[in-house]
Design brief:
The protein is an alpha/beta fold and about 180 residues long. About 35% of the residues lie in helices and about 25% in strands.
Length: about 180
Amino acid sequence: MVYIFLADGFEELEALNPVDVLRRAGIPITTVGVGNKTAMGSHQIPVICDKTIEELTSFEDMEMVILPGGMPGTTNLENSSGVQKALEWAAEKELWIGAICAAPSILGHKGLLEGKKAVCFPGFEDALTGAKLSTENVCIDGRIITAKGAGAALEFALALVKCLKGDAASQTIKETMQCSR
């Protein structure tokens, strides 16, 4: 199971694009509301989540955790003890962790980017503690996937599919969506 955490102030494209693309690929993904079952996006688009973070009793079925950016969504995610526990579980079990825009800063603060190539929204580079900064839109290093921002959301989502189901599955989704890049 893939868990994507949504807190008030999340960037809608960075959250919903991966949800859509992973579901197209047949990858189970659960939207998890941090604070409430309905999370309000940074552009005032409310999303009713599948679960609240309080309803997650175990991470045993977790394959990947995804953190969208946006403000104050990123801050709200970082301040959540439930999100912190999910990240710790994923890191300990060497599961996939995806973060886009400002959200890679959370990984940097936790020391999860040490020695890894990573990217983020411009202005958050100082928070990527220990990372080798990249200029790519999307970086995959080990089990960490990071991306620049909303403009890279589709590329990020396709990279998530690639990590979970392989390049052929990612290419198939890309073709069916008529994505030229």
